[in-house]
Amino acid sequence: MDRKPLKLGVLGTGMIATTRGGVIPNLRHIPEKVELVAVADTVMERAEQVQQEFAVPEVYGSLEEMLERADIEAVVNLTPIPFHGATSLQILEAGKHVVSEKPIATTMEETDALIEMAHSKGLTFVCSPPNVLYPYHQEARRLIAEGAIGQVAFARVRSSHGGPAAGDWPGDPTWFYQEGSGPLFDMGVYGIHEITSLLGPAKRVVGFSGITDPTRTVHGGPFKGKEIEVTADDNTLFMLDFGDSAFAVVDGTFNVNAAKSPRIEIFGRAGTLNMSDRWMSRDGAPPLELYRVEAVPGMGGWLTPLAWSLGPQQERADMLGRAIIVDHLVDCVWEGKHPDLSAEHARHALEIMIKAIESARTGRAIDLQTTF
After folding, report:
1. Is domain 132-308+349-366 classified as CATH 3.30.360.10?
2. Looking at residues 147-174, what average pLDDT do you find?
3. 7 and 71 in contact (C-beta within 8 Å)?
4. So where are the chain's domains?
5. Rounded alpha-carbon distances, angstroms, from residue 24 to 64, 87, 328
6. What would the 3-class secondary structure string for 288-309 be?
7. How much is the pTM?
8. pLDDT of 30 strictly over 80
């Protein structure tokens, strides 16, 4: 197959597109894989600023205009959460590969339509979050699969923070707290993708969810002091049943202002696997720790897996930042392989989120229908 750089358009020029760890600044690390041709945003002034800052050849005020006029093969969809489904479907209908931010959509109907469209047109669909691509996550998955901690009993997964209003958010954070968005779609999705990547598809979900405070005050940034009416649940916790008496507790909340515990703890009959929080942790814990009931003599129970190191693979992943999902798309297109960040996995994560809320409303454990 001809491995010329994939011609790329970016839809949405907000934080995920432009910040230091975002998509656009880090495309420069993979010039052999991708050529950024165009950006589009309904706020034309913002799009033009990005065009100038990053020397993007073309700029458009709408997705429709970019799809019609730009010579592109793929689009990175960085729109706000409520627009993911409709805009990704437009991109696929136009015959372009898609990289989408999480979640894939907000309804199962939208998601099913996206998967069917991608399949019918032979297009590749990659959906964030990117965590499962990181070397330390892949090493954790290998250790579990090889029985390093024995039969998994349960896991605790922390995937939340204090919410955009709690920090120095550079934009207006209001929409994060509105119906159709919220911390479950924004942050809980990370933990769902991570634990299902490690343990496989879940079979049932039971959840608790509500609004802790009907009003949030923005604590920093240009909108400091703004009062936000909260209409989306800002505090959701749920348990996943993986079968064989293996369970996981996951959070999707804007109420984790600080934490020292590992991001993920997986407890097995023969040991424990800890994955640290590389962003929130302040105690210098290694990214991956393994406890073996039958430890190596003289070393104690806790081990730092020798296969883990900040070597070339992890350094490259850190360098790419959010652009790692574009890197993954190109690899999948070039090699004709199914993405690790697949639309099917994203659909399973969405079903978990939707049914966690349904469970919270009805007080019932709810069976899951999807897999990946």
Report:
1. yes
2. 95
3. yes
4. 6-130+320-341, 132-308+349-366
5. 21, 19, 15
6. EEEEECCCCCCCCCEECCCCCC
7. 0.94
8. yes
